[in-house]
């Protein structure tokens, strides 16, 4: 972002959608979709090449898009990012998407380092970016904080405790924030997707073990796609400002609960 561009946001400008974790999967699909909806997108993630390529793609398609390298767990970097972003136009949105799972270990043997890392990104990452951008979203007169949690934020499953605990934390953050900002011009929306097949979620969880990652989706006719989730984000944030979609749980038809999945063999 050039300083002149960053400071140009004003109340007559297009609303901004800041998307964390925009380098792949749900984040990238959401950035594409919100750009198509007319938002000026600000793409953040740790991997510069990916978000720069996506910003270039969106710009070439006639959209306003900027890339800003950001690790949501790095609070000074998040604060510096918020400062450079400056004021936001009404209708602007923060999409807290960055997050992820590490391992599928039972409580008895789970690695505390994995639990800590998952709490850092899924909870403190959301906290950092939300705290940093909340003043500008409120000052815009019509802002939205959206948190992409998970069905893991609403029920547990064996081996999932570290991730489930973190996503419950993100859910509680969103639910509590909604209470606390009630009366101010900002909505707090939570979207909780179930089984979504993306290029990286399960591969990251199983540390590059493609066989274990593929097994998650084995026999499932149609897991959700990143675009399916982006569609729900776009729907939720484009409702009229007085309409707050508190919580939207979305799963593929083949998944009735966290532990009930229909697999065709
Ligand atoms: C991902 C859903 O079932 O892997 O957020 O926890 S699950």
TrEMBL record:
<dbReference type="InterPro" id="IPR036291">
    <property type="entry name" value="NAD(P)-bd_dom_sf"/>
</dbReference>
<keyword id="KW-0560">Oxidoreductase</keyword>
<protein>
    <submittedName>
        <fullName>SDR family NAD(P)-dependent oxidoreductase</fullName>
    </submittedName>
</protein>
<dbReference type="Pfam" id="PF00106">
    <property type="entry name" value="adh_short"/>
</dbReference>
<dbReference type="InterPro" id="IPR002347">
    <property type="entry name" value="SDR_fam"/>
</dbReference>
<comment type="similarity">
    <text>Belongs to the short-chain dehydrogenases/reductases (SDR) family.</text>
</comment>
<dbReference type="InterPro" id="IPR020904">
    <property type="entry name" value="Sc_DH/Rdtase_CS"/>
</dbReference>
């Amino acid at each position: 972002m050039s300083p002149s561009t960053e400071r140009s946001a004003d109340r007559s400008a297009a609303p901004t959608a800041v998307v964390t974790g925009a380098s792949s999967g749900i984040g990238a699909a959401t950035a594409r979709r919100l750009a198509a909806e007319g938002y000026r997108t600000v793409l953040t993630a740790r991997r510069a090449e990916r978000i720069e390529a996506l910003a270039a793609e969106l710009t070439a398609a006639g959209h306003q898009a900027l890339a800003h390298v950001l690790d949501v767990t790095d609070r000074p970097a998040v604060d510096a990012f918020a400062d450079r972003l400056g004021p936001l136009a009404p209708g602007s949105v923060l999409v807290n998407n960055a997050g992820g799972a590490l391992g599928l270990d039972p409580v008895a043997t789970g690695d505390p380092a994995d639990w800590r890392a998952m709490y850092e990104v899924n909870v403190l990452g959301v906290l950092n970016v939300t705290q940093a951008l909340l003043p500008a979203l409120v000052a815009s007169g019509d802002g939205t904080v959206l948190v992409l949690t998970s069905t893991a934020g609403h029920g547990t499953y064996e081996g999932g405790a570290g991730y489930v605990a973190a996503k419950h934390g993100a859910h509680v953050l969103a639910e509590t924030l909604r209470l606390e900002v009630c009366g101010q011009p900002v909505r707090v929306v939570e979207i909780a997707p179930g089984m979504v097949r993306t290029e990286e979620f399960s591969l990251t969880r199983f540390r590059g073990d493609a066989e274990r990652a593929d097994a998650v989706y084995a026999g499932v006719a149609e897991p959700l796609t990143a675009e399916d989730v982006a569609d729900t984000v776009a729907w939720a944030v484009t409702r009229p400002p007085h309409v707050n979609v508190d919580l939207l749980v979305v799963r593929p038809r083949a998944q009735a609960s966290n532990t009930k999945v229909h697999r065709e063999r």
